[in-house]
Amino acid sequence: MTYPRRALFAPHGAVSTSHPLAAAAGLAVLRRGGNAVDAALATAITLTVVQPPSNDIGGDLFAIVWDGDRLHGLAAAGRSPAALTRELVLTATAGVPVAAVDALGGAQAAGPAMPARGWLPVTVPGAPAGWRDLHDRFGVLPFADLFTDAIGYADDGHPVSAGTAATWARAVAQPTPTDAEYAEFNRVFTVAGRAPRPGEHWRNPAAARTLRLIARTGGDAFYRGTIAEALDRHAARTGGFLTAADLAAHTSTWVDPVSVRYRDHEVWELPPPGQGLAALSALGILDGLDPAGDPVERVHRQVEAVKLGFADAHAHVADPERVDVPTAGLLDPGYLAARRTLLTDRAGAPVAGDPERGGTVYLCTADADGLMVSLIQSTYLGFGSRVVLPGYGFALQNRGTGFRLDPGHPNVVGPAKRPFHTIIPGFLTRDGAPVGPFGVMGGHMQPQGHLQWVAGTVDGGLDPQAALDAPRWYWHAGRTLLVEPALAAVPGLVAGLRARGHQVTVAAEPSVFGYGQALRRAPAGGWVVGTEPRVDGAAVGY
């Protein structure tokens, strides 16, 4: 028998994330007089040290901030190297089988695909610049003060949590090639070739060195100084394409979040290149349907709406700086109504429409003044590219895996482009007033997790913790559908879904269904906070 967690009620400020030590770092910052952005940054920076299989200094970051009056979005996502072309990738991968890791959740066409490891999928890390940019706009404590706990855990070590150890072991079980660019990975991130065990003490003093440089220079060392120069040399020596010029050219992008109406709420995501449009599209389709009905009907509709949302996202989402992404058209109520008519009582395999044109960690924080942050950060697919910079203790992300090689696709690989991105922070408002941040990490699961959490919150009236505790389903491709055991236990659900054409499998592995965090304002003041029960989640407050 499992016992669900109970929501945390905090009168002043709160932090919720996937690792207790990182949550404690954020809470310490709140108690020292920092605001929700300071707390979010201290949490995010600490997560790179205590949860390295899922995120690292060499990753990307996206955030939504409620400043007390309105929402702001930050896309701290890096671009591909200027030297990276489709022709180069095709030449380098000639004769190599399609990548075993399907970055687009089954939507990748048959044929050549972007590799998942090595230098080819490496894009410029955006997280260090994202930390600086969020702090410059909203932070109140000195930037360097936000690194204290992370540097301490890297220098002195910390006992590895059980959930992190399990993720680490799964990642290390995937063989790492022996080419020169991978040589540092085993030295830094394994213990004699294996993952650290739960409770085992693990140190990364080289990462502490990197974090000190970023803290002291406001990130300049990473993009124009010591670290950038070291990355340039390492890439040149081991066959990489990243250069000091690529790093110096990097910028974050401030964006306006986009939304759809769902019942009497508004659901907010960031615009492309993230896949938040898939969640918004699915919710916009469901908004026109009566939420009542038996469990089979509810789950069936949600799954079919998600399929439509993903079909459009995979067809149209790309770097909006390089192509015209029809964001407004995809979210237009008339277009969503037309997509809604494609829902039937049978499991389908929908295709994209033609609208009018116009490995991850998540955290959320709130403070006593009402500032709220929804932030997600990742290197992707278990230690990213597995290219580790010698002497600096961090892995580079492999976000280029999200590019396509089809020359006619808007997301085709090319120089200085941002790829299709899986990581998406969410935010909920009601009639323009803030309700709170939420997120569910986990690649292709993320829009599906967002939809299920929002439906549980808005339609089911669940608090943030109960909505996270609720059993989930996961659609990958075709008509396959995975459900958690607790969902399969609902009388008649699996049989009813199978009768509609879904190929249902009951899956006990919790990581398949994503890991989430959420909080919302309490009606009488303060915060109601939830954290993921499937992993080492921690909700803390004061």
UniProtKB/TrEMBL annotation:
Keywords: Hydrolase
UniProt entry tagged with the keyword Hydrolase: yes
Recorded GO MF terms: hydrolase activity
Transmembrane segments: none
Protein name, per record: Gamma-glutamyltranspeptidase / glutathione hydrolase
Lineage: superkingdom: Bacteria
Organism: Micromonospora rifamycinica
InterPro entries: GGT-like_enzyme (IPR052896), GGT_lsub (IPR043138), GGT_ssub_C (IPR043137), Ntn_hydrolases_N (IPR029055)
